[in-house]
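Supplementary Methods S3. Input chains for the assembly prediction are listed below.
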Amino acid sequence: MTAEVEVGGSTWVDLDSVPHGDWTIFRAGLRSMTDRGLGADLDGEYVAGFELGRRWFDVERQPSEEDTAAALQQLVDGASPGIQVARLRGCQAGAFAAGWDLKLNHRQLLSRSRNVRVRPQWGPRVEKGLARMRSPLLPALAAVLTTPGLDLDSVAELQRQHITDRRERVEVVTSAGSQAVAPGSEVYVRAYLAWVDELGLGPEAPLWCIRVGAPRTRDSFRRLVMRLSVLTGEAFGRADDRRTSKRWQDRCGFMVMRLRP
Amino acid sequence: MGVETTLGLFAVMDREDSLETRNEIRARGFPRSSSLIVDVIGGRRSGPFLVRGILEALDKQAGIRGEVRSCDFDWSYARAWVATLGIQRLVVLRGHLLARNLVEDLVGFSALLELELVLVVVPQETCRASREALQRWCFASETMAELLEGLKV
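Predicted structure tokens for the full assembly:
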């Protein structure tokens, strides 16, 4: 599958703007959208996804999981979450036309990067996806996760004392030294710190907790990170964690099955 | 009324309560200035709606799916954002719709964050309890012209 779809584009479409149905009714949903212009644009993305999906799956032997994952990631890379979903639904329809059943858990898929670990970047796309959140938790988490030198594990273990606010800079202190969060993201971290400090947590309290004595578990932290990926379209989750779940939805985000011999 | 305040609490008597004036005030608020303009929705006078009005004025409305929603959390979010975004003045339109306890909530909110609080009220529609609250907290009178001048971007 080649990247023939124009990646990125100037239009931002969030996840709530696209129909929620599966691929069988997705195009009908697009056509009944009240915003006809947006519906037509998304239909174009759907058709592009369909064409690519049909070509990609026009094979006799089952493609490998790695190749399919890379192709699906290439299809959605750089696009806003709504457009990603439109392309993926089109791809499912294209796969069906070629004789394959492509099951997708787009939330899981979008939370994973390609075979290499891609560091998410703080930018207008991430900010736009998170700027209207009531709670400063997710924007602050995104700001810290996009800080160079930090990975998912070290961010999960952060304590309140590890973040300092000095003049114009907000810094995350790690064993390797201090790193300033990305420019433009400071306000979100400061808001989160203000919120956490109001709870009266001590300096050694886990940073990502919702109330005293209730730190987030590893699973709930992972769900938060996945939610970040879905809201922003950036791959905040990591690709190489070894998942223990046997469910295809949790393991890799998709499953391919031959429909006819 | 008429008592000088040191608390940064002001009441603007707006006898007309016109949509044009409200829109003019709104147009001068956050993010164009450090004044946050909150409109009280008629008929929705309870605490949750007031704090949601504040969050709405800050353009913070989206939630996380499955998130516990509570008035206390919303107040804490509002405090965190207001303290961080450099808001210096809270202007509440249609303040006459606020019940006394909500006036006191706003006084506490603005005192905690060291904000100037301006209530725009229609005198003839303010209930007795709210009038008493304004007197008790020594809200100073300000004219609409002074308010608009102070909101100049």
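Residues 9-61+68-150 of chain B form a domain with the Rossmann fold fold (CATH 3.40.50.300). Chain B touches chain A at residues 55, 59-65, 67, 73-74, 76-77, 79-81, 83-85 (CB under 8 Å).
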